[in-house]
UniProtKB/TrEMBL annotation:
Keywords: Cytoplasm, GTP-binding, Magnesium, Metal-binding, Molybdenum cofactor biosynthesis, Nucleotide-binding, Nucleotidyltransferase, Transferase. InterPro entries: MobA-like_NTP_Trfase (IPR025877), Molybde_CF_guanTrfase (IPR013482), Nucleotide-diphossugar_trans (IPR029044). This is Probable molybdenum cofactor guanylyltransferase. The lineage of its organism: Bacteria, Pseudomonadati, Bacteroidota, Saprospiria, Saprospirales. Signal peptide: none annotated.
Length: 373
């Protein structure tokens, strides 16, 4: 079938984020008070509040970052901007009296009964019905939610916080699955031989060794290559071809997200012959899905190692933004983003072998005679 535009995998977003809830049917003051309280209680998750203004704003665009306040007379915003913003968050709590969201918490409040009826078509997946000033669910609403696969909880407003465990379940279920990406697309110019095929121990190439390490951690493994058509897949792994040519590891990481935008990627260079399972387990245990990435850092090193790191889906958009500014260094991305850094007590697992001389030194450390295989 002919496609006018290349088909791309799209992330599983709602109107805003992967998990989102519209609060609809009561006063804005009441619902937004609950939304703000929940945002505080869900401090381990990045939460976006989406509310509306009842009067025209003084300026077209206003953004605050800490003490810095940006204002502009120019405004151009649409649903795609909503998703670009919301995709950076784990959860969006939305004032549903103003804007829709994929799931809803419905408030039955006599003072806003008309508002709720007008939003009937937006009640697509009601998580709960909260009774503000009544003990019964309106007949029309009861009939509406009976068509759902699962019946919503019904509770008084005084018990609204009992919905938090259910929301936590939704957030945990939405944690991006983790995959491993072994980078084997480099030209290995300094080494003079393909680093991914070098053997340091046990007759295994480095790609095969890393593959087995990742499989021991029960991770699906993919191999990043320059061109899947011509790559020799010696490790029998699914290939991720580079679709951002000439950009090095940044292009490989972006290509992985292009193929699977809802996955998090454990990115591993193939020139770390001392990298071991214990180091990877330490990294996986310390993973922070609420951050852009989780990376390790050797003792005494000022910066994290970008090629022994877990990149969350939200890293994709920021990586592309850095590329648009002319920066293709993954380390610069990590240094200038909200990431978790794991300090290792031993830096040897992060030893690079990029040249024949470095390879000889590594072979000596693992007890192999020089020029050994």
């Amino acid at each position: 079938m002919h496609h006018k535009h290349p088909p791309l995998a799209r992330p599983a977003l709602g109107q805003y984020a992967r998990t989102e809830l519209a609060f609809v049917g009561s006063t804005c003051a009441r619902m937004e008070a609950v939304m703000r309280d929940w945002m505080q209680q869900l401090g381990d998750y990045r939460t976006l509040l989406v509310t509306g203004e009842h009067t025209a704003p003084e300026v077209a665009t206003s953004i605050r970052s800490d003490r810095k306040h940006f204002t502009s007379s120019h405004a151009s915003w649409n649903a795609f901007d909503d998703r670009l913003l919301g995709g950076q968050y784990d959860l969006a709590l939305v004032n549903g009296n103003h804007y829709p969201a994929a799931r809803q918490i419905v408030f039955v409040d006599e003072a806003k009964a008309g508002t709720l009826v007008r939003r009937k078509d937006q009640l697509s997946d009601v998580l709960a019905v909260v009774l503000v000033d009544t003990e019964t669910v309106p007949d029309w609403l009861q009939q509406h939610v009976e068509a759902q696969e699962s019946a919503p909880a019904v509770l008084p407003f005084s018990a609204v916080d009992t919905l938090l465990p259910k929301l936590l379940e939704l957030l945990q279920a939405a944690t991006p699955p983790l995959r491993a990406l072994i980078l084997a697309g480099g030209k290995s110019e300094r080494m003079g031989a393909d680093k991914s095929r070098l053997v340091y121990r046990d007759g295994q190439t480095e790609v095969e060794r890393l593959r087995d390490l990742c499989r021991s951690l029960e991770l699906p493994v993919h191999l990043s290559v320059r061109d899947a058509t011509f790559a020799a897949n010696v490790a029998d792994l699914p290939l991720v071809a580079d679709r951002f040519l000439g950009l090095g590891p940044a292009g490989a990481i972006a290509s992985a997200f292009l193929s699977a935008p809802d996955a998090a990627w454990l990115v591993l260079a193939c020139d770390l012959p001392l990298l071991d399972e214990a180091t990877l387990r330490t990294l996986l245990t310390a993973r922070r899905p609420d951050r852009l990435a989780t990376a390790v850092r050797g003792p005494g090193k000022p910066w994290p190692e970008p090629l022994v790191a877990i990149y969350e889906p939200r890293a994709y958009q920021r990586l592309l933004q850095f590329l648009s500014l002319g920066y293709a260094c993954p380390r610069k991305l990590l240094i200038n983003s909200d990431v978790a850094v794991v300090d290792l007590p031993d830096g040897r697992p992060l030893t690079n072998a990029n040249t024949p001389e470095e390879r000889e030194r590594v072979l000596g450390q693992i007890g192999v005679a020089p020029h050994g295989r």
